[in-house]
Amino acid sequence: MNINKIKLLHEVRAVKNKKELASLIKAQRISEKVLLDAVSFLKDGVTELQVESFIKKSFIKHGAPILSFPPIVAFGKNTANIHHESNKTKLKKGDIVMFDIGTTVNHYCSDMTRTYFWGKPNAKQKKVYLDVLKAQTLAMNKIKNGERKAWMIDKSARSFLAKKYKNNFKHGLGHGVGTVIHEWPNFKPKSTDIIPTGCVMTVEPGIYLKGFGGVRIEDMILITQKGYRLLTNIPSDLKSAILK
Fold first, then answer.
1. pLDDT value at position 244?
2. Is the CB of residue 207 less than 8 Å from the CB of residue 165?
3. How far is CA 230 from CA 66, 88, 202, 216, 222, in A?
4. Cα separation of 88 and 132, whole Å?
């Protein structure tokens, strides 16, 4: 298959019809219920592995056992690892808590990351969180104002974070979501993609400070003719991120 046909296939797949979008949104709504379940399950001394196991069982309980990807559950310093795998680390007061979860409905995926604080965040934790949130808002506003060049949208968040955290945002700002968790198009610094109306994208800036922890906030949006529609219903303001 030649490169133009592959590109065309990607572009056709990227634009979701009503039925595809309904499946994707349903998967997201289930993920939101599971996230709230997981937050309620947290307690001092619980391990990442115990929470991950609980999340998997919760997806089964909600009728969506086929996940988009293995859940990421990270506590404390482990949140600085972008692709952390759960271990026996126990939750303690003052920890940053990161959940990155998603499931599938009729093969359509959802994807969401939320970062929380187990107890009152310190000044540095608060600052990193608010900076990541602001980077996401800058990118969303670019999209809202009609920007469709992927690299420009990525740049709006990346250049803001680069001023504050040198060379720290080490992944793309987001990606298309469909029957696979990462599909065309992509928000990346060198991306030549033009984001089509009707595709579903993640917007997920993150900062990861070794020995301290990390913050990532990820929402899914539907690209509309005049802007975007937010598909994630879980709040991400600082107040909502403080659990105790």
1. 81
2. yes
3. 24, 35, 10, 17, 7
4. 28
Distances (CA, A) of 76 to 87, 126, 127, 211: 12, 14, 16, 9
Which stretches does DSSP call E strand in 119-212? 174-176, 183-187, 200-203, 206-209
Q: What is the pLDDT of residues 74-124, one digit of tens each?
A: 999 999 999 999 999 999 999 999 999 999 999 999 999 999 999 999 999
Q: Residue 44, Cβ neighbours under 10 Å: how many?
A: 12
DSSP 8-state assignment for residue 24: H
How many angstroms separate the CA atoms of 101 and 15, rounded? 23
The model scores a pTM over 0.90? yes
Q: Hey, what CATH topology would domain 3-241 get?
A: Creatine Amidinohydrolase (3.90.230)
Cα separation, 134 vs 57, whole angstroms: 34
